[in-house]
Amino acid sequence: MILETTVIIIYSIALLLIFLYALAQLNLLFNYLSSKRTKIECPKLDLSNPDEVPYITIQLPVYNEMYVMERLLDNIAKIEYPREKLEIQVLDDSTDETVESTRKHVEKIQATGLDIKHITRTNRTGFKAGALKEGLKISKGEIVAIFDSDFLPKKDWLKKTVPYFKDEAIGVVQTRWGHINRNYSILTRIQAFALDAHFTLEQTGRNCKGHFINFNGTAGLWRKQCIIDAGNWEGDTLTEDLDLSYRAQLKNWKFKYLEDVETPAELPIVISAARSQQFRWNKGGAENFRKMLGRVLSSQNISPKTKVHGILHLLNSTMFLNVLIVGVFSIPMLYIKNEYAHLKPYFYVMSFFVISSVIFFICYWFMYKNIYGGGIKNFIKYIGMFFVFFSIAMGFSLHNSIAVLEGHLGKKSEFVRTPKFNISKYKDNWKNNKYMKKTVSIHVIFEGLLMLYFGFGMYSAFIVGNQGGDFGLFPFHLMLFVGFGYVFFKSIASKV
């Protein structure tokens, strides 16, 4: 009975944590819908008045970006802003032949009269955070815009974002990510779905009520004074953007999120690239939970509700660990439930997962409707999309849980970049990309085993108990089977 009791307790705790996270998402939905009904007018700089035009530095942190570098530089060169108040820093940490090709392209753009500099370092100390910090030392701008190499801001991007720095308490202006290759494959559609939820429901839902949000590493602007006041960029976590965001907001700097300003970007098209990105984001989230929890709890400047949302925000990635625990323990729970009739009242806790799933379904529908529109046809499409999204998200739970555990345990690892492809059509060839990993992670083998394990879970639904089976967990096990199967076979196929 000790083993069974332990399984029930761990399973129940994980379910309750997921439920609390779902309730927080529901609260963000209410906030989001409320923000749509009340438009707040913000003071804005008049960029037609030369005296109000701030000096802008655009930073482009890059590392071995053979396939997108020219596209990035040509796009940034088109940005509209008074040239006497604009400088561009190409912060190039590359270690391959792109250093020379980038230098030549920068010189070509310099010849047009644009103030653009090619800045290199002898080592990658601090990785992206280190590059940004080095560039900041010599930057001229009082406002710093940052773009990763796969982002393509529209030429009027600065005109739409810079005016919000009229309020001197504003430290960051963040824009919504768009997706130039959203419809490339199931993988890109799933990634777009998840990011759209973050950039509508979560960012708006938190920001409109004054809760902490995060600069998303790119497609946003920082007030230089805010960066310095918050302690500057630090490279001790894999998500330096989340780290600096919390340090700045704990210093009472305000963040402004602009849902209506979209900045297009490229999504990873190969599962190995998505895996490396997911690993970095989830491990970095756990690292920041370790780093920031005490500061958030002890802060006298923020309300209890903002603290709760902040803690759950920092625990975002840890939900993958809870999902994995619930999934793995659900099969033993199925047998325990049908073996010990006197314990059946305790199994009402299982309904928390159903309630949580319904909450997520409702929340994400509003996000989906906002992008694709309402109506019965779109709702039917959404049901299918939600099932696929939920399944594949759970299929990533082992991979992401390992990242989360490493983050919580303080295990350090190198900043692994996400390879870019500059590919928008499925028939385009990506297999010759020189930056792709050539080996299959050992984690993939365990994902294949988990696929079989949840296949056994579906089989178990037919044989447990003496009442003709128990199918309450069958849909859950089906989604886990599909999710782990997709991740396993995609990971193997991408190496063939």
From TrEMBL:
Question: Where is it predominantly found?
Answer: membrane
SUPFAM superfamilies attached to this UniProt entry: Nucleotide-diphospho-sugar transferases
Q: Where are the transmembrane segments?
A: 6-30, 314-335, 347-367, 379-398, 440-464, 471-489
Q: List where in the cell it is found.
A: Endomembrane system
Keyword annotations for this protein?
A: Membrane, Transferase, Transmembrane, Transmembrane helix
- List the PANTHER family hit by this protein, alphabetically: GLUCOMANNAN 4-BETA-MANNOSYLTRANSFERASE 9, XYLOGLUCAN GLYCOSYLTRANSFERASE 2-RELATED
Query: Per its record, how is this protein called by name?
Result: Glycosyltransferase family 2 protein
Species of origin reads Hyunsoonleella aestuarii
